[in-house]
Amino acid sequence: QQIQWFPGHMAKTIREIGEQMKLVDFSLEIVDARAPQTTQNPQIMEMIAVKPVFLVLNKIDLADPRQVTKFINKNKDKFSGILTTDAKMGVLSKDFLRQLKNNSFFADLSKNNTAANLKALVVGTPNVGKSTFINHLAGKNIARTANKPGVTHFLYWIRTRYNLVFLDTPGLLWPKFEDQEIATKIGILGGIKDNLLASDDLALWLISFLQKNYPTAIATRYKISHFPLDNPIAALMSITSQLGLRQDFESASQRLINDFRSGKFGLISLDFYGDDYLDN
Ligand code: G4P
């Protein structure tokens, strides 16, 4: 089934971002720390790479630290800097600014630019926490927290409490995903409207993924002692009955996805670079 997740206005917005690049000093691409590769927008990258790009791994509080380290080691040369944030926490502003200012690019830029504000374009796939992030630095509820997939259409300048001005952009997806796994992961992370994807497909994928990479997560969460490890459909049936939902696989799937989204299975990353302790 071909899913329409790319409303026409997104193409227009992407063009507008290209036109605004001359007005900004650098860009912040916000991604979900649980899937930092998958939630990067390849189409936007081409556009914003004309200026330094900092990748911001948000929702770091939910991600598997080992996978985050592996991702950073693999990708650090591709960006001017890779930063980590938990936008829900009040400590974000100080910690984020410290990370940014420690970067040599930023130090040089602010030396030459002491009086003026630094301007940053902020981009991100829907639901990575971009509005929460901006609101924290702005110190008010200014970015639309209802910035759900495809809702906001425009670019907005937002002044923060610091020497930073943000150009906020709508949550953007791209027209074609290379493979179905990308759509599935973004769906599980809440970046594609829930009614566009079948929640039982997402749940079955998530069950297989967890069974393979975090084999105790589901059994622990739902207190299931004899859990079918190699059969996701049987596993979904056990979860459904354990939740007292009889044959309502749809509700059980939704519950599983929501539990994952809010971190109930522990620190889990969907972009998984292997279990070994070596960074390769
Ligand atoms: P967006 O603009 O990128 O679309 O995302 P938004 O800020 O609306 O955030 C999406 C959801 O992610 C929100 O939860 C928000 O609270 C949560 N969130 C944002 N940053 C972080 C983070 O660093 N860590 C964690 N754990 N969560 C984060 P929600 O359930 O949609 O809303 P609410 O229940 O918080 O009101």
Topology of this structure?
Elements: H1 8-20, E1 26-32, H2 42-48, E2 53-58, H3 65-75, E3 81-84, H4 92-101, H5 104-111, E4 118-124, H6 130-138, E5 156-159, E6 164-168, H7 180-188, H8 199-213, H9 217-222, H10 232-242, H11 249-261
Helix pairs in contact: 7-8, 8-10, 8-11, 10-11
What are the key terms here?
280 residues; alpha/beta; Rossmann fold; 40% helix; elongated; binds guanosine-5',3'-tetraphosphate
Describe the structure.
There is one protein chain. This protein is an alpha/beta fold and 280 residues long. The chain has two domains: 8-168, Rossmann fold (3-Layer(aba) Sandwich), CATH 3.40.50.300; 198-261, no CATH class. It is built from eleven helices and six strands. Strands 3-2-1-4-6-5 form a six-stranded mixed β-sheet, with helices on one face. The two termini are 36 Å apart. Mean pLDDT is 87; it is low at 145-152. Guanosine-5',3'-tetraphosphate (G4P) binds at residues 58-59, 61-62, 86-88, 124, 126-132, 145, 147, 171. Belongs to the TRAFAC class YlqF/YawG GTPase family. MTG1 subfamily. Required for a late step of 50S ribosomal subunit assembly. Has GTPase activity. This is Ribosome biogenesis GTPase A. GO terms for molecular function: GTP binding; GTPase activity.
